[in-house]
């Protein structure tokens, strides 16, 4: 079997001779029957971006002068509850907290940990309220500069196995899988997953994706701590950790769903092509990646299946907004449901857009132009064609981070 070792690849990188492809570039060449051979590829940078509910942050910051309170009992950041501790920081005037990316504000369930962490990294001012064990209330504001330490831990990230959902019933169903209830009679489909770009999809036996390996998490160097929660060989995911303060807020943030705010992240992982087996695993394409389609109400009972080529196809990754078509409805449905608040006050901020497609599917007057596609399925012995109304993964961000990783490897900034 053909082989090379990491030193050989690193030497080529140092000499500026390494052949590094993003997964998107590599798959495009495969589709064109022009795939580089084992000898012609040294590293492929893979990536994924999507809602990753198991995200938490450990934060440490000062809220008062020392001696003002014994220790925190309850802590709220912009109204989002965080768990005080584990360190009690007795009489120090500072707190350690664990904040869940899925925690919701006590006043607005659509605002939560994901939005808050993004705002911290955007340098915004954050309201802090501490209720201490000795009955004191300390209110203050902090910014990113006041945070001494901020570490993200993702307990289940970069999963490769998802299920797409539709609603065969008659009544609309609210869920975390779309920002508005999913209408019945198979009228729409929602899905997650970046298909053949996903790191674990490109290294199914975990030949290189292992505990201790360095990755990019939201554009900061991070590490694989091990398998994620509920990970198993058939449905793997990863536990990752990295320094929030080094992360680029473009790559993560809050994501509204029918059941409140969630959090999305972007992960990129390099696959050095050390063996022919590793190379062969990289040849997987969207059409080979099967995804079950289930009833939104019976999440683990598939109705049928499809593949990621059917779901992503060559469909649009971002919408175009035409203000001339907007009729200024009394209540803008798009502002209500846009998961990342990219559409606000009749302005589309593409730097916040996730490409989910909800605007194009639910604007009442077609002010958005975006083809998110339809999928042909056979359900209950009938052929049906279902529009894709919501995507909870973002291939554009996954591709962008994979490209950044490629450039960082080439420049020597990211060592393999
Ligand atoms: S729903 Fe569409 S047409 Fe109505 S205000 Fe919103 S963007 Fe404009
Ligand atoms: S595609 Fe539309 S609804 Fe989705 S994030 Fe972008 S602007 Fe918001």
Automatic annotation (TrEMBL):
Residues 317-343, 344-373 form the 4Fe-4S ferredoxin-type domain. It holds the Pfam family HcyBio. This is Methanogenesis marker 16 metalloprotein.
């Amino acid at each position: 079997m053909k082989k090379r070792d990491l030193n050989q690849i690193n030497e080529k990188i140092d000499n500026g001779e390494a052949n590094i492809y993003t997964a998107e570039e590599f798959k495009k060449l495969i589709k064109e029957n022009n795939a580089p051979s084992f000898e012609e590829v040294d590293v492929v940078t893979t990536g994924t971006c999507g809602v990753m509910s198991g995200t938490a942050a450990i934060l440490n910051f000062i809220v008062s002068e020392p001696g003002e309170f014994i220790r925190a009992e309850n802590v709220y950041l912009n109204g989002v509850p965080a768990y005080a501790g584990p360190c009690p920081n007795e009489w120090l005037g500072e707190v350690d907290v664990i904040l869940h990316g899925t925690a919701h504000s006590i006043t607005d369930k659509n605002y939560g940990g994901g939005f808050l962490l993004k705002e911290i990294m955007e340098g915004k001012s954050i309201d802090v309220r501490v209720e201490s064990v000795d009955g004191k209330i300390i209110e203050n504001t902090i910014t990113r500069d006041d945070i001494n330490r901020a570490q993200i831990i993702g307990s289940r990230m970069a999963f490769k196995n998802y299920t797409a959902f539709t609603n065969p019933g008659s009544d609309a169903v609210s869920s975390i899988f779309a920002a508005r209830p999913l209408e019945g009679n198979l009228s729409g489909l929602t899905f997650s997953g970046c298909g053949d770009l996903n790191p674990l999809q490109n290294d199914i036996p975990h030949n290189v994706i292992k505990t201790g390996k360095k990755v990019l998490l939201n554009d900061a160097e991070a590490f694989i701590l091990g398998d994620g929660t509920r990970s198993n060989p058939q449905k793997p995911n990863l536990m990752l950790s990295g320094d929030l303060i080094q992360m680029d807020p473009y790559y993560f943030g809050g994501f509204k769903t029918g059941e409140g705010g969630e959090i999305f992240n972007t992960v990129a992982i390099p696959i050095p092509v050390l063996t022919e087996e590793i190379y062969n695993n990289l040849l997987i394409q969207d059409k080979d990646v099967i995804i079950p389609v289930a009833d939104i109400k019976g999440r683990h009972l598939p109705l049928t299946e499809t593949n990621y080529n059917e779901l992503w196809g060559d469909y649009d990754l971002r919408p175009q907004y035409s203000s001339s078509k907007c009729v200024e409805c009394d209540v803008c449905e798009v502002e209500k449901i846009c998961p990342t608040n990219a559409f606000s006050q009749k302005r589309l901020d593409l730097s916040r857009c996730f490409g989910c497609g909800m605007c194009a599917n639910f604007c009442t007057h077609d002010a958005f132009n975006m083809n998110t596609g339809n999928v042909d399925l056979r359900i209950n012995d009938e052929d049906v064609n279902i529009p894709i109304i919501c995507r909870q993964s973002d291939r554009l961000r996954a591709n962008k981070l994979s490209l950044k990783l490629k450039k960082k490897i080439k420049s020597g900034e990211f060592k393999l």
